[in-house]
Amino acid sequence: MPVPETLRRLLKPPITQAWPGLIDSYRPWLPVTDRTPVVSLGEGATPLVPAPALEQRLGRGIRVWLKVDGLNPTGSFKDRGMTMAVSKAKEDGAEAVICASTGNTSAAAAAYARRGGMRAYVLIPDGYVAQGKLAQALVYGAEVLAVKGNFDRALAIVREVAERYPVTLVNSLNPYRLQGQKTAAFEIVDVLGDAPDWLCIPMGNAGNITAYWMGFQEYRQNGRSRGLPRMMGFQAAGAAPLVSGTTVEDPETVATAIRIGNPANRARALQVREESGGGFAAISDEAILEAYRFLASQEGVFCEPASAASVAGLLSRAEEVPAGARVVCVLTGNGLKDPGTALENGSAGFHAGLQPDLETVARVLGF
Ligand SMILES: *Cc1c(COP(=O)(O)O)cnc(C)c1O
Questions:
Q1: Which of 43, 12, 14, 11 is nearest to 26 (CA)?
Q2: Which residues pair with 86 in a beta bridge?
Q3: Predicted confidence (pLDDT) at residue 102 exceeds the cutoff of 70
Q4: Could you tell which of 205, 234, 295, 331 is best to mutate to test the pocket of ligand 1, judged by most ligand atoms within 8 Å of the CB?
């Protein structure tokens, strides 16, 4: 198997040259020119980590890899889209960007906008953003507006603001976001040498599943892969409008990154399912948290709850996976984003208030 282009570039000795970020790495595939001022923080080239514990659980020779996109600069895949959206906004002379966010978009928008010398305005649902994400937006220097409504309401407001005032919308309705995000599919094919058989991914606004499908299709059209994956999209049971086919007025789930009742990319997501022969399913919060703990404690990979929906979804559809199939689960965000959920769900091994002596410690250790 020939060494893929991106990998060869990475391996070229001496390994002193840093990864230049995804725009410079995939420039021919992206709508940029020499005049585009690239705003990059070195996003992309995230690890594709084998998942032996999951493979053992699934059996039948099924291979599984985790696309650990929580290792991007601000801790989620949103950086892939934001490097493109902010670079193009800068090219157009924008001085400010705005977004509605369940948290990760605001962190990415804040970081890239400030890096590009622009102001960042973010609207978040008051009380429903994981602590790490809010902390990021504040420290990066965004103006954070917490509104007493859910994400869907916040998005409706920022769309109107961007229409009336001189500020660029950087939600996934911005077409450059999906252009940047499609590079994750390129990276998977570059490493595996072909497309996987299944791609499992969490869905909120369904921009990412749309972007991956775009990436897989473009690579195949250009002979970079032979196949295309079945696109398997998963939502939290309390916020599953793409599964139920209706709008969810009051979405509710522990997976706050996908707590969305009216997905902006609904039509495109349905088209992806159709074209790829894929499937969507709703996953309970219990199953999401079980996968979340399993990934951390058995694979050593700490993702945020929304990301674990991809693995919980795979487990829920396990009988349908063909023997020997190659599966990639997208882990969209870093576990450190949401310390609250982590502390509530990882406390089984926590022994507090111990006397500081050898006898006590040895007893707790079981000796
Ligand atoms: C944004 C986000 C999602 C959902 O992606 P969509 O493109 O809205 O479907 C999933 N997981 C995490 C961690 C996210 O930040």
A1: 43
A2: none
A3: yes
A4: 205
